[in-house]
């Protein structure tokens, strides 16, 4: 059998090589399309309006045996020069209900808040002077926080500019925190840190000296639920046991402490025992209150995929000619036979008139779905009458004002306005006179219609328990509530799969066409 050799100098060899190149090119483009099939992560979003609301603890707002009360003040207080109660002029700067991005407000029993002054800082929002064991429930708010959140990944990084001061015994001892930062990892753990400063002092009016500023943990966090509209979480407390908490009392079932480096710092301010259980029944007063953070997360749009272009060299439109011989612009037809306008199909096989039809012919148009109305207290479901109870809701009409009402005897706990996504995050106080029994916290429109509600039970000892299921609205509460939006969209994979298949098919058709021409000419 004679072996026929082909050299690339022959027209037939060049045509076959070009056909093989077309198939290889199609496979290469398909592989590149497959490698680029993973969609970009568009879940991360910038926030510029994060608002953090926090009472710190009931003890930080309680009546005191000397100096009137413990209180929160906006801004970083100046050096008073000695361990003594504050006056209207000392320290300077001194007491303030607002300073920059920071403000202080006292809730009213019937709803709404009041703005305290130096003269009323030891009175509740309703004007009652607090005594040891009672609290103003003052709420500290830091506004205009900036950073990023990723609800899909469960991460957040937000920072605030501004400071606040915490004074005990009317100012005998006080410290300040500046520029808090929140960091939440994908495993649900997090931390709230700040730069703290203050003065070495004692409640008996002894020592007084500036302390070296340092960064400490204001709160360590577990099981943080990052949503597209906010975060509500109770800081770690129960079972935390810093080495420097020398008088830690574990007889209370809810014993615990604030973070270790925070307690170390308070050992120098003279306040340390007020930040962990040192008595048998002081856990409710000293444990950290829930932190509530609200923001508007504007996700960057994901760009639509574009048709991949042919890589490198464009496909020639005519057959290469023999050296020195001009190549005809069309294949010569057989004498007397008109040139077909299309390539003939394989015998017995009709030539397809279109490319493969597998896959979607149009981009899916289904967009994000609007969540059903829901309300939650986050991961905490047990509170005490007089505590700040965080509330977070979504699935409501955007930019709409609602009243938050406690039933059955209606008591307005506050008003809120939903953001552009139809969500809100706030906190309310269950009035101390609320009778034991079953109650409902309802979010009501202007005509008194409850759009979503939460069932609670107040026990005889003043414990507030959020029921796992509100049977009226079938809204699951606590950590199981889906209070965050999900990133919805369409995948580029069907389009890329179709394009890759089409390119391979195009290369295959090109190869068949070359072979036909070679067969006709040979």
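Sequence proposed for the structure above (522 residues):
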């Amino acid at each position: 059998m004679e072996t026929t050799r082909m050299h690339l100098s022959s027209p037939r060899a060049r045509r076959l090589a070009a056909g093989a190149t077309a198939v290889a090119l199609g496979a290469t483009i398909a592989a590149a399309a497959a490698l680029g099939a993973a969609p970009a992560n568009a879940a991360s979003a910038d926030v510029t309006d994060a608002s953090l609301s926090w009472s710190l603890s009931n003890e930080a707002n309680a009546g005191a045996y000397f100096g009137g009360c413990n209180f929160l003040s906006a801004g970083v207080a100046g050096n008073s020069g000695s361990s003594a109660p504050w006056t209207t002029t000392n320290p300077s700067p001194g007491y303030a209900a607002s300073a920059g991005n920071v403000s202080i407000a006292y809730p009213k029993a019937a709803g709404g808040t009041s703005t305290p002054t130096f003269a009323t800082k030891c009175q509740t929002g309703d004007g009652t002077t607090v005594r040891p064991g009672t609290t103003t429930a003052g709420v500290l708010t830091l506004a205009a926080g900036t950073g990023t959140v990723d609800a899909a990944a469960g991460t957040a990084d937000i920072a605030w500019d501004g400071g606040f001061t915490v004074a005990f015994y009317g100012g005998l001892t006080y410290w300040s925190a500046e520029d808090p930062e929140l960091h939440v990892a994908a495993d649900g753990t997090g931390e709230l840190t700040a730069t703290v400063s203050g003065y070495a002092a004692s409640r008996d009016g002894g020592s007084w000296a500036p302390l070296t500023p340092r960064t400490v943990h204001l709160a360590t966090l577990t099981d943080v639920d990052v949503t597209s509209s906010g975060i509500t979480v109770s800081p770690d407390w129960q079972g935390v046991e810093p080495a420097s908490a020398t008088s830690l009392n574990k007889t209370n079932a809810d014993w615990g402490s604030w973070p270790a480096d925070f307690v170390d710092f308070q050992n120098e301010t003279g306040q340390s025992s007020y930040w962990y259980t040192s008595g048998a029944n002081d856990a409710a007063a000293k444990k950290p209150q829930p932190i509530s953070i609200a923001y508007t997360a504007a996700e960057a749009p994901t760009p639509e995929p574009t048709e991949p272009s042919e890589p490198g060299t464009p496909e020639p439109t005519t057959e290469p000619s023999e050296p020195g011989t001009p190549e005809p612009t069309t294949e010569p037809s057989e004498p007397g036979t008109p040139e077909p306008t299309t390539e003939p199909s394989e015998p017995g096989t009709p030539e397809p008139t279109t490319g493969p039809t597998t896959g979607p012919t149009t981009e899916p148009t289904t967009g994000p779905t609007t969540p059903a109305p829901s309300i939650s207290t986050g991961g905490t479901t047990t509170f005490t009458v007089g505590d700040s109870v965080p509330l977070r809701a979504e699935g409501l009409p955007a930019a709409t004002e609602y009243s938050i009402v406690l039933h059955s005897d209606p008591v307005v706990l506050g008003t809120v306005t939903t953001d552009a996504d139809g969500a809100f995050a706030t906190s309310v106080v269950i009035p101390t006179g609320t009778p034991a029994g079953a109650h409902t916290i309802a979010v009501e429109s202007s005509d008194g219609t409850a759009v979503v509600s939460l069932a609670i039970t107040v026990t005889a000892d003043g414990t507030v328990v959020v029921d796992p299921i509100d049977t009226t609205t079938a809204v699951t509460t606590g950590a199981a509530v889906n209070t965050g939006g999900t990133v919805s969209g369409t995948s580029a994979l069907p389009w890329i799969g179709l394009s890759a298949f089409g390119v391979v098919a195009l290369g295959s058709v090109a190869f068949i066409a070359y072979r036909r021409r070679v067969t006709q000419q040979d």
